[in-house]
């Protein structure tokens, strides 16, 4: 027994709990059962190839197999652990069991030495066994030198190769071996194993703490044991709580990632950018942070689509409180938006990792994520198209004609306005393309009170004059101008234009404004996914949009979507008619006039 009081003799938890027989192998029942049957039937291949992610038991299985073959009672599925062969293999000092590190013995000369060693009979054991770990690190010349020996080794020689990257092993080597794939350890199995170890160590724990450790290990039992030992040290070998476990794991940027996820779901760009800046000041890796954010949206996608708490928790490995948090945040965001945001964040990780401007990259990505948070899926758009304009009018008969005429964005006028601005100034047109508009018609012009508009509508003196020139040329000067950031008319008039500069004197009263803002939008019948307001154009309202803030670039995007759906419907109808014709031909139906 090791002396626990001596730090020099201390053995880490991952080594102390290493399995010594196939029955103790954690989470690899299929592999263990297959090898045990080979041993029982005395049908042992001359070359094994173990593949799988790190920490899943490949090297441990290779040593167990070596003990099973060399044990005095063997070949057996249960090594005795007491004979000289078992003890020496456990201590890695057996003369006939050679462990070779493929990462440090990559050259052809190393393989030639190994090939020479295969010519000699075992010193004391039944077999001479060569365990080559990380075999994919061998050079091409080394693999070629090994091929002949690997195909027809001496009868007393057995090769056991192990790799984490099977695709890097030449097909000529793979075809000469019997391949066993070690899968990632399931989280439930890993949690049970960790709890058994803590019970033997007489250390108390919270179930949530063990769940956090198993989830962070990502299927590697060795990583889980290393993390567990780290948590035990921080908890001073006493009770393991979930709070201390979170601090001990030091998951980089997870809390900030959660807050950014919430900011994206609530479309709060200011908070999201501030959180990114705080993460940069804390020297967090932006690529890892973006990876954590993408994982949140991956979990959100599963929660939204499954709509089953128990199943979603199993698939996402979330704690119940984490599940509730994500479910609450995604109430007003569509499946299509979640999918697009996940793709955007996941695809940006490599770019951010390679870039020297990680913060700038992240800011651009998060801004795009928030702009996509209102996207709709094709099924949602098709559902909206099923509503007729007549139904909309019938449901909103209580609205006054004046309100209907004022409470919309006239697309024709707005597009003419931007086109006219583009003739005068490219810079002005670019800003107007991205500005958010609440109302834009002959009666009311109102730009949204958003931070984006504050930037887009901050015109220089020249662009401001050109802006108002366009207003006068389209005869919109008599409209009521509202909005915190809506440009104000300069006191100096443009001498080149003989336009009417009379401003509208009558202002809408405070009571009328309040009433106007509180009146329901005529498009409210399109509500879906938890009262999310969705606007769509119909035949009668083709050139109008609702009073929801929108920019011209978004309007163009919606028109493209509508055009696509119309073409898609036409193709469906055409295909349906063709199918009817084919069916009539098959049934030999003769048309009757």
From TrEMBL:
GO terms for cellular component: DNA polymerase III complex. It is an enzyme of class 2 (transferase). Residues 485-502 have a biased composition (Polar residues). InterPro entries: AAA+_ATPase, ClpA/B, DNA_pol3_clamp-load_cplx_C, DNA_pol_III_gamma-3, DNA_pol_III_sug/sutau_N, DNA_Rep/Repair_Clamp_Loader, HLD_clamp_pol_III_gamma_tau, P-loop_NTPase. Pfam families: DNA_pol3_delta2, DNA_pol3_gamma3, DNAX_ATPase_lid. Keywords: ATP-binding, DNA replication, DNA-directed DNA polymerase, Metal-binding, Nucleotide-binding, Nucleotidyltransferase, Transferase, Zinc. Residues 44-186 form the AAA+ ATPase domain. GO terms for molecular function: ATP binding; DNA binding; DNA-directed DNA polymerase activity; metal ion binding. DNA polymerase III contains a core (composed of alpha, epsilon and theta chains) that associates with a tau subunit. This core dimerizes to form the POLIII' complex. PolIII' associates with the gamma complex (composed of gamma, delta, delta', psi and chi chains) and with the beta chain to form the complete DNA polymerase III complex. DNA polymerase III is a complex, multichain enzyme responsible for most of the replicative synthesis in bacteria. This DNA polymerase also exhibits 3' to 5' exonuclease activity. Belongs to the DnaX/STICHEL family. This is DNA polymerase III subunit gamma/tau. It comes from Spirobacillus cienkowskii.
